[in-house]
Amino acid sequence: MAKKKLRVGILFGGKSGEHEVSLRSARSILAAIDRKKYDVVELGITPQGRWLQGGAAQKLIGEPDEPISASRESTLSLVQAAAEPGTGTGLDVVFPVLHGTFGEDGTIQGLFELADIAYVGSGVLGSAAGMDKDAMKRMFAAAGLPMTPHVTLLRSEWRADAKKCVKAIEKALKYPVFVKPANLGSSVGISKVKKRADLAAAIELAAKLDRKIVIEQGVGGPGVKPRELEVAVLGNDAPEVSVVGEIVPAKEFYDYEAKYELSGPDESVCIIPAKLSKAEAAKISKMAVAAFRACDCAGLARVDFLMAPAAKGKPAQIVLNEINTMPGFTSISMYPKLWAASGVSYRKLIDRLIALALERHREKQQTSFTR
After folding, report:
1. What does the pLDDT look like over 246-292, one tens digit per residue?
2. Which residues contact 278 (CB under 8 A, 6 or more apart)?
């Protein structure tokens, strides 16, 4: 008897500013996933938040700018999609290829938990912590992991007394600083500030995008361009790490334009594996696993580091930058490329992530939620 195929929902789109990035990731997964193993169901979310399936979802991913009309056939209830997994009418597992707000921040993960659906990636806590740079840094600090100094302030604090906020920032940090919305990905809304005259505009930009603003001291100090290093993590309770990779940004730092819009001779360069000593690579790998565990992550994550040149008589400074619980997943994104360089192909990576999602869901069934 032929083994029954798993019914896998690939969920993409969403209301976040990273909607287009999600579509790119989903196109790559849909092109590579093994159709002999899985019955694939396309699930789309429009920028307005409407859920779609079937032809409407395919239309969203193929022609994202074309208007989509709602119909009884195109709209989707997650409860209906999740009903009776394994029967052919429901889903066995969901791969939420959603980046940013409402997809990577614990919101959709909470919905999956309520519906009791197996899903790829971190749970509510890991996703929320990985999205909120302030909460993430608090967890890193509790785990004793090295970071660059930073200040967090609220939008309400800034608008109530901007001068007081500037004074607090300059007391704690030295220029240059990076100003970031606490809860966005893909480097959206991030500014590098080299002097006080540019600080207010950078904070205002970040404040439009989130109520919490994180200001970080530049690694290495004025005039230093630290190396940007990345590690891919895969697993649940026993995570594995890839080789270390390096991004050489086409711009002053790896912002949204450098990540997704520049091409040809202006494109950022990936170096895999990064040119590091064995001791440096081992240290970064160990820190990546520690960061993954500190935030209670599962399934996958990409952990980013900054490395300043060695000073006289001292080793190079290596600090954690951030963790991404649903990193870009196109076939040329850093996460799959790091695993390809480590011996795990793109298709095999999809298989591993689905298996990890099911493993985590089975483990959850061992927990009693009643007395």
Report:
1. 999 875 654 555 444 545 556 779 999 999 999 999 999 999 999 99
2. none
